[in-house]
Amino acid sequence: MPIDEARLHATVDALRNELIAAIQDLVRIPTENLPPGGNERAGQEYLARHLRELGLEVDLYTLDRIPDLPAQASYWPGRDYRERPNLTAIWRGQGGGRSLLLTGHMDTVPQGGAPWTVDPFGGLFQDGRIYGLGAIDMKGPLAAYLLAIRVLQRSGVRLRGDLVFESVVDEEFGGVNGTIAGRLHGPRVDGAILAENTGLDIYPAARGFCIAHIFFKGPSSLLAIGKGDSESGAATEQLLHFLTHLKAFHHRRRQGLVVPPLYQGFADPVPVLLAKAVTGGWGEREPLSVPADSKVELYWQLMPGEDRALVLQQFYDWLAELVVDAPQLYAEPPRVEFNYRIMPGTQMDPGAPLVTELAECVHAAIGRAPAITGAPYPCDLFAIQQDFDTPAVVFGPAGGNAHTGDEYIDVASALSFVRSLALFIARWCGVAD
Asked: Which of 8, 135, 171, 275 could form a disulfide with 105 if both were Cys (CB 3.0 to 4.6 A apart)?
């Protein structure tokens, strides 16, 4: 049946205020991921209530209802899922069409210590933006999913294929267990959209990541400095040596690297970043001393197709060479912990129907062809593509400041996302007579 695109777009415009209100509502509900626990329930219940009002079959379930979850290769142990339900909702089609999954995560990063100029849970709407923790990552996109369904229903669309709405817990900090549980619990689908921030471009690929916590230990002394050579092995000296040689690890990461076509336009396909460095206390209530301990959080990304074991070996070889380079600094070698999963990169064929048909809908809805490239960040796309062999792309609206102060979503972009998504759902799933 032909799709009345003009009616779809007009309905999106008419529901603009509903989208703004839904984003603000979700931002005002704290759902921080606080490993090993979190507090996503209230946000999930908000979505469940509105999805039931739209007539979808809604299931809120805790991850302990998925007995096969711990046996999955990508499962990460040590998380607490009490009062942290996943949500699956299904809009049943009339039959004969392709099914589609709209997936996203309810958890946000913790507020942390980054300065905010607005209330992180206030949902301020100002100058075309809605501000708040999780506004773009990814409560705004979840609200846009909800609006796309409402737009289709108010436009009189009846789908042929099933549409599945999924909101999972514990995506931040490389959790991904919620995504795996969703795919074990929910129905198999013919395609999936993950609505992270893409600025309306389409990402059939995503980078992976490693996070290493590295601990340096040395003598603690102040009065003895200059009397002997104990200060040469201080933890701060080890830290300085480590930081001075960090670019060498970055260079090693790029040597011989095969960069997939979707990432060949990136100036730095495998960045290595110092996320945190801590040594000693600060302020007048801390005694003046040479710190006995220093620690860093090192973050680096992986390309699709890279072997995780080889990437780890690169790191350990480089770290061992640091100790050999300056044995006088290291009475004991640095200690390393990996407290988060090592997430693999992932990709699918950019010429697949999911990508090309979505690109056509975006072009039709917003008047420009989207870029088709790799995501500059890691996410749970790998679990959908690799663990469940499902065509999936990252596609979402524009925003900024994710994981830091004054996070926001651009409302005009969110409306364009809804227009594109509603049209794509109708074309992909098919419209019944």
From this structure: 171
